[in-house]
Amino acid sequence: MRESLLGWHHYRYLKWALALLVISVVLYATQGGSGAAQPANGGTWQGYVLGTVGALLIVWLSALGIRKRSYRSNAGTVQGWASAHVYLGTILLVVATLHCALQFGINVHTLAYVLMCAVIFSGFFGLYAYLHLPGRLAALESGVDQQGRLEELAKVDGRIRDASERCDANLQSLVISALELTRVGGSAWQQLLARDRSRVMIPGADDQKSRAASNTEQEVVLRHLAARIPDARKQSEAEVLNELLALFGRRQVLLHQLRREVQLRGLLKIWLYVHIPLTAGLLVALLVHIVVVFLYW
Amino acid sequence: MYFLVRKLTGRGSGEALETEYQGDKLTLGAEPNAMVPLPGVEADVTVLAEGGGGGRITARRPVITVDGVASRRASLQPGDSFGLPGYALEVIAPPQGFDFALQLATEGKPVSAFAGNVNLEEHTWSIRRSSWVLALLVLAVALVIPALGLWRADVASTLRSTPLPDDGLWSSGPLVSAHQAAGVSQECQACHQTPFVMVEDAACLDCHRGVNEHVDLAVHDAHAFSEVRCGACHREHNEPAMITRRDKGLCVDCHAEPETWAVAGEQTMAAVEAFTAAAHPEFQLALLEPQGPGAAHGWEINRQRPGAEPLREQSNLKFTHEVHLDPAKVQHEGSGEALECASCHTLKDDGEHFEPITMDAHCRSCHGLSFDIFEPELELPHGDLRAAIVAMEAHFIREFTDPELRRQRAAEKPRRVPGKRDSAASCEGSGLDCGRAEALKEAQYQFANTGCITCHEVMETGLEDINDRWFVQPIRLTGDWYPHARFDHTSHLSRASDRPDEVCESCHEASVSDSAGDILMPARDDCLGCHAEDTGAAALDCVSCHAFHQATGTLSRVARDSAILQGEKP
């Protein structure tokens, strides 16, 4: 069985992280109290040690992110790094909290802490995504990639266009509008939500204007086609309707898979759009935090 | 402007549908309000005619493909071809009456109609760009803008008075309430005067001008204390707010090794490492010692630690607590109740010391100095031997020179209390002589039998002159036994007891003291019972009992302003 990210080398980095946790807690416990020169805070020698460890961890974890950009690579050491990144990044939350002894305010020091928390929690989402989403994506793809699916969709659309030319004008305009008003993806938000915003123009009877209606999961057009079959007056018309029904059925499946795939791929990536810029902000805030501590000594 | 769009329909059949548009620009795309609907092109493409059939095309995103290169804008002339996702377009020569004409064909595959919409990268800021923006934003807000005030005070105050970020963002925690004052709380540079330099003593002493050093630098080598900053003991921006460090190290760091700052030729202080029997010396009493016989040359304070021999107080007072607290022997004059501690000892407002015991306030009501039975309300003045003698002589001379008074008194003389003094009725001399003789007799009686001698040691010199014949030794009671310590009677007296004096007696064993020389002050062990550090009971820090800034220390402002603390001896 493939060794998981978390269990890498018999939980080596989990053990490291727990050791660091114990050391940090012990260090924290030796400051403060009634007999201490000052309450627990970042300015005691223990606070400085915890802060230095935290800062080094942040820099190291950031450098790791730059060096290793693709978690999907299975090169052994990359997984080891990822494992260390996850565990030590999580422990950083404790180290930094003990460093500041839960003293917060509206200042650059708390800004650095908040940014750090945001980075770590976005990392938790990333971890969840990398542990669970590739499996779902693989199950969805079942050997066909996005490009293949788009090509098949193109073929289906072509056949629908061909078939629609054998229909009456009303049906043709309905079918073509269903093709043209199909929506997949869109803005980042729309890609992630994967909500079907497809529409269709339903032709009005006689003088009435045609109106646009929601065509979620191609249901309206499918229902329309199915309803027309019993009324077909000619054999050829029934055949065309059947063919269109089958094609739209396939189109429904393809579009659904495509949307889900776009969504999963988006979820796999979107957290990095938060994680990495926040890391950049954190590194600067960390630098400012350190400079300012000594600026107003 | 008139636009013509020729849409090729069917598959290669050459059929076309021409549509005319009128407006200042031609819009294409997937938006519902686009003039030319192009499903899949969600980029708001706009064409402006520029004359001669040419035009300019722009899009919200780089979707315009010219020669395989995607861009957001392009200049077009008739004959140019370009692509939009899912469509091939060609600029054609506009027919008569039109400014711009486009030929539009759907690309063979609708693949590209979706291709642009299913990649996250094309719909978000790049990670790199977001990272730069956030990093620079943090740098500007948290460091650069507040730092502008470091060089110009007016810029700093402008920043503080507007919503702009100021150096308050650099504060690592709230100030203690005493420092939440104008001129300090907002003005970081009131204390942090030089960037990258720890807060200097001068900044503290700007406001705190009356603070004394811990030591007298005229006695101790200032060099030994040159490393000590105000900030070594006083820390700001802490939560919970604690301006003074309260740990043992505050004192013990130096006092564990007193030899490091010992003064040559003087006894070294005892080492202190903790408040325990082993690590804290016995308390040192400040004993008043009379100088010369009967304190004729005044008093000096002598600091002494109790040893094997009990120390004695040398106040010259004749007094026992035992008798005065015995209800059978002494009672309140009016109520007849027994005396209690508070009958004489009144706590001062400081909660530590007591009002001084005086003859007039505490003794005279019982130990009156009346000297004539016929005028018992007439009393001798206290504390001035010469005045007392003058008072007696004046009184008796008057008695013997006033015939009417003399006759009146002589009639009553036989009723004198037996055993007091001889009747003066037998005096046959002049009024002056008789009065003087009577005064001498009364003085003898007052100094040697009753009155003064009750409480005072009285020396009889044997000299003839009435003024020099007796010497009453003065009494001086100790006001502060532990002058360098702080103690709060109020908090200790709050302990519950059935009899008020029980609490007092738990430390001061007065009711068994049969001598005024007994020292009733509690010693170290009395305190250790509750406050020993190693028992974990009501442990105290050093500054609970000992003040740091000593009244006898050098004035800090003077010491620190001069070069004393740089190692020069004053």
What does this structure look like?
The complex is a heterodimer of chains A (297) and B (570). Chain A is an all-alpha fold and 297 residues long. Chain A folds into 2 domains: 8-141 and 271-296, no CATH class; 144-265, no CATH class. Chain A contains 9 helices and 2 strands; from the N terminus they run αααααααββαα. Chain A has a two-stranded antiparallel sheet. In chain A, a hairpin with an 8-residue loop joins β1 and β2. In chain A, α1 (8-29) packs parallel to α3 (76-100) and α5 packs antiparallel against α9. Chain A is elongated, with a radius of gyration of 29 Å. Chain B is 25% helix and 14% strand. In chain B, the strands form 5 sheets. A 5-stranded mixed β-sheet of chain B has the order 2-1-12-11-10, with no helix packed on it. In chain B, strands 4-3-5-6-9 form a 5-stranded mixed β-sheet, with no helix packed on it. The longest helix of chain B is centred in the first third of the chain and has 21 residues, at 127-147. Among the domains of chain B are: 2-106, Tumour Suppressor Smad4 (Sandwich); 363-472, no CATH class. Chain B has 570 residues and is of the alpha+beta class. Classes of the chains: A mainly alpha (297), B alpha+beta (570). Chains A and B meet through α4, α5 and α9 of A and α1 and α2 of B. Chain B: It holds the Pfam family Cytochrom_c3_2. Chain B: One of its GO terms (cellular component) is cell envelope. Chain B: Residues 407-426 are annotated as: Disordered. Chain B: Residues 179-255 form the Tetrahaem cytochrome domain. Chain B: Its cofactor is heme c.
